């Protein structure tokens, strides 16, 4: 998975390993003094579930990037100094320690970069049509806290 040759947005859903370091490097701009990168990784437990061995992500892939685009648009509306935005999500079976989602945001100052990145990952998790299935020794089920798709504030999905 390679970053775009031009533009300030990089959105993707893929079965490939997410290029965390590449997303960081791509986000750096001369006009931006801060880059905040969030990488969500598979852990060995969930609420009320110990011994998680792996996660399997599914997505309504045709709708993921359009949702990411609306989230980034709202970021730029709220924090005009945002430079680049990368939102990448992996689908398929992921093992412990693997990165399932990356959100990287560059901005002129750290406050805006932190706030925009936090908004990005929080809104992605509640808005993008992506679902996880947790597997552990005694079974499997949809991830705890799974919910219906919600609207990005100020925009209809």
Can you offer a commentary on this structure?
- With 157 residues, the chain is of the alpha+beta class.
- It has one domain: Molybdopterin biosynthesis MoaE subunit (Aldehyde Oxidoreductase, domain 3), CATH 3.90.1170.40.
- The chain has three helices and ten strands; from the N terminus they run E-H-E-E-E-E-H-E-E-E-H-E-E.
- Helix 2 packs antiparallel against helix 3.
- The longest helix has 18 residues.
- The two termini are 26 Å apart.
- About 3% of the residues have low confidence.
What is the global morphology?
elongated
Helix content: 25-40%
Overall average residue pLDDT:
91
**Contiguous helical run count:** 3
Q: What is the subunit organization of this protein?
A: single chain
Q: Give the full name of the CATH homologous superfamily.
A: Molybdopterin biosynthesis MoaE subunit
User: How many separate domains make up the residues?
Assistant: 1
* CATH architecture classification: Alpha-Beta Complex
Q: How are strands sequenced across the largest beta sheet?
A: 1-6-8-2
By DSSP, the count of extended strands is 10
Roughly how many Å is the radius of gyration? 16 Å
Key descriptive features of the protein:
four-stranded mixed β-sheet; elongated; 157 residues; alpha+beta; Aldehyde Oxidoreductase, domain 3; four-stranded antiparallel β-sheet
